[in-house]
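Data availability (excerpt). The following record was deposited with the supplementary files.
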Amino acid sequence: MPVTALRSPRGRKAALVAVALAVLLAVVAAGLLRATGDRTPSSPAAVVVPSPSTLSPVVPEPVVPVVLVPDPSLRSAALPELDIAAELGPPPGPRTDPRPSAVAPPAARFALLVGVTDYRAPTVDTIGSAKDATFLAEQLLANGWLAGNVRVLLDAEATGAALREGLDWLAERSQPGTFALFHYSGHVKQKGGTREALWPVDRAFLDDTALVAALAPARGRMWVDIAGCEAGSFGDGFPSDRVLFTASSKQTEKSYEYPEWGMSIWTGLVFDLGLRQGRSDADGDGRTTVGEALRYGQYYAQAISLGQQPYGQQTPEVSGPADLGWTLADPPA
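Predicted structure:
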């Protein structure tokens, strides 16, 4: 009988061995299931599928559009009630500008800055051209440029001969690995068609083709910035791969000065409000780039000059290298 056999010593031992073996197999089997349980589906009986009525609907987070509105302090000087956004669209928003692969150290940066306010009769004076140049010089020095590498020609100093000599000096120092800046603020002489000329204090005009020729020997990265009427005329002929060209207006437009600032609209927007004050920092990262400042200046120069009579608004132009993620403290080489 089975029960009697279990009671005998031999039977009990065999039975205990059998029971132990069964328990061991059960434990091993249970261990294997635990080890592979995260990789095997649960049995259908263990899965609870909620009915559609008990499912909570997935409600996406509301998308709050960022509405950019023009700075109310920068309005049309002629028509302050004008809706700037309706005329120009929203102001420039965040944009990613690539950074240059190399930066010119302070010893490899050079600048020629020209500004003429006090012209000789009968030429009418400007309002803030000399201040444009002095302000820019201050900003370069504040951003690590060396005083010995920054030349400034103001008013009576800005003769045609001095301008040409300064351009030769700048071109000679512009070698691979350097960064050079030429800025001119003052009158521009119309010579017919697309031929315009920089207007030195002594009327020894330097036309647009002569400017390009004077800087042709340059071999490094360069920024040519013209703040004057018909400024866009001076952009033809520069190598677009290494020369950033900026103009305060198209070659068919006038450029304006802002008496309240004592500067040209273009220089005040780009170099003061844009770069120094950081008001063009569209992405809010605390690092205001030249790209941000130029887009800011392009937009608000049009805004401030909307409705001007009889010449109309000014539309700044920017052309050349697209890597504008740099500042005056780390210009490209």
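Summary of structural features: The chain has a mean pLDDT of 84.
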